[in-house]
Design goal:
Strand content: under 5%
Structural class: mainly alpha
Helix content: 40-55%
Low-confidence stretches: none
């Protein structure tokens, strides 16, 4: 396994987060259950500095 950095998510991470969640959902329930817009909306609703 390579190296990685741990940091708080940013709104610009929505596509990467969506890809990860969609892959997991597909393996568990056979399809993604969130759209990229859903992920972006959740990130906008959160206080990323304090709640992530």
């Amino acid at each position: 396994m390579g190296t990685f950095d741990i940091r708080r998510p940013r709104g610009t991470d929505a596509a990467a987060i969506h890809d990860l969640v969609a892959e997991h959902d597909t393996s568990v329930i056979g399809r993604p259950d969130m759209t990229l817009t859903d992920v972006a909306d959740v990130l906008e609703e959160l206080d990323l500095e304090n709640d992530s």
